[in-house]
Amino acid sequence: MIASVYIHIPYCVRKCAYCDFESYAGRLADADEYVARVLQEMERARGEYGNLGVPTLYIGGGTPSLLSPDQLSRLLDGAARFFSLDANAEISMEANPGTVDAAKLRAFRSAGVNRISFGAQASQTGLLALLGRVHTWPEAVLAVDDAFEAGISNINLDLMYALPGQTAEDFAETLDAALSLPASHLSCYSLILEEGTPLTRRVEAGTLPEPRDEDSVRMQRLALEKTRAAGMERYEISNYARPGLECRHNLVYWERGNYIGFGCAAHSMMNDERFFNPDYRAYLSGAPQSEREPVRGTEKMEETLLLGLRMTKGISLAAFERAYGKACADALRREIRPLADGGLARLADGRFALTAEGMDVQNAVVVRLVTALER
User: Fold this and answer.
1) Which of 240, 286, 292, 313 is the most core-located residue (most Cβ within 10 A)?
2) Which residues have C-beta within 8 Å of that of residue 353, sequence separation ≥ 6?
3) What pLDDT does 21 receive?
């Protein structure tokens, strides 16, 4: 059986103003206990699934780069011991530029990390402060250079747009600064105002302007134009890469492959069954995973459309027909025609995909398709 592995690290220096992830400041002293618990969980998974073939492994958070090189090595050594890591496995790690130096990055590379994702977010000091980030843009530049020198040449930068008070000129400046670095991949995400976060409370209170949809679309188009001019190609709504350096781990999610998550609040999808781990304290105390929830029928079809149409390659109509039947596939083909006529979609070589204009309104397109297919 083949499955990608995700490991969640919940520690951070301080909680960012927009973040609602399972992450905590001030608890790094628990990290050795936490690593031991993750290794126990991996061992149980080996007993349940046997010798899983693992093509990609992703360490996310939180801020995984707060781990010591020894703690990271124990996790990756455990993954190699309990599973069958591919010889060319993509091993990714998220990092905050303010928490690494050249020596630590060399140690992470020696432990097995061959792809790193820096949360750079913005090049303007004021916007970084607004977000509650603990790094500066010069630190992000230094981190990229140090990672490259350490032998980690597959480097992603996370950037954010549609921030309160951010202008298109600000985002263009950030894109230019990011594209001047030796990064192979950019992830450009529109801010989501999550309920209960400090940033959302400030917007709701009127002390910060609410980002406008038209500004978000304009900034998304800037990302498309500038990355293309720099030799990157968009392969998913928010992701751009140099040829052959797409994030293989994230493609597993969008293609609905098997993945198994370890650590608190980590989610898994194995054999079309979804389950997840408990929150931090419950996880450390040994609380069990959630009940397994089968994903079948209409729900599975909706996920196929929602995730598959995030990718610029779209979905195979032949595969859709095999999975959901001829009647459903024919109904989908009927819906494609007006979308294509309106410039929102394209059909080529048996694949249905959205155009750049379609991706601007992807959620609305998917709702339209699902509604039509459920008739």
Assistant:
1) 240
2) 309, 311, 312, 313, 314, 315, 345, 346
3) 87
* C-alpha to C-alpha distance for 168 and 172, rounded to whole angstroms: 6
DSSP 41-79: HHHHHHHHH-S-EEEEEEEEES-GGGS-HHHHHHHHHHH
Spatial separation of the C-alpha atoms in residues 262 and 4, rounded to whole Å: 11
Q: Is 167 helix (H, G, I), strand (E, B) or coil?
A: coil
**Using CA atoms, how far apart are residues 350 and 340, in angstroms rounded to an integer?**
14
Residue type (1 letter), 353: A
Measured in whole angstroms, the distance separating CA 256 from the mean position of its chain's CA atoms is: 14
Determine the Cα–Cα distance for residues 120 and 128; give it in Å rounded to an integer.
9
Tokens of 356: 């750049």
The pLDDT value recorded for residue 167 is: 96
Q: Which residues pair with 12 in a beta bridge?
A: 25
Q: What is the mean pLDDT of residues 254-282?
A: 97
Report the alpha-carbon distance of residue 223 to residue 134 in Å, rounded.
Answer: 24
- CA torsion, points 328, 331, 337, 338, in degrees to nearest 10? -120
For the segment 191-196, the average pLDDT, to the nearest whole number, is 93
**By C-alpha distance, which of 188, 182, 125 is closest to 159?**
188
Map 192-242 to HEC letters. Answer: CCCCCCHHHHHHHCCCCCCCCHHHHHHHHHHHHHHHHHCCCEEEECCEEEC
Collapsed DSSP state (helix, strand, coil) of residue 189: strand
Taking alpha carbons only, the member of 109, 201, 99 closest to residue 149 is 109
How much of the chain, in percent, has pLDDT values that exceed 90? 96
Predicted TM-score (pTM) of the model is 0.96
Strand, helix or coil at 320?
A: helix
- Give exposure, 88-112, as e/b (b: 16+ Cβ within 10 Å): ebbbbbbbbbbbbeeebbbbbbebb
Asked if pLDDT for residue 89 goes beyond 80, the answer is yes
In the block, tokens 């059986």 appear at 1
Half-sphere exposure of 369 (CA within 13 A, CB side): 31
- Cα–Cα distances in angstroms (integers) from residue 92 to residues 7, 64, 116, 194, 248, in the given order: 10, 11, 5, 26, 10
CB atoms within 10 A of CB 353: 18
Rounded distance between C-alpha atoms, residue 193 and residue 26, angstroms: 24
Distance, in Å, from the CA atom of 242 to the CA atom of 228, rounded to the nearest integer, reads: 9
* pLDDT higher than 90, residue 52: yes
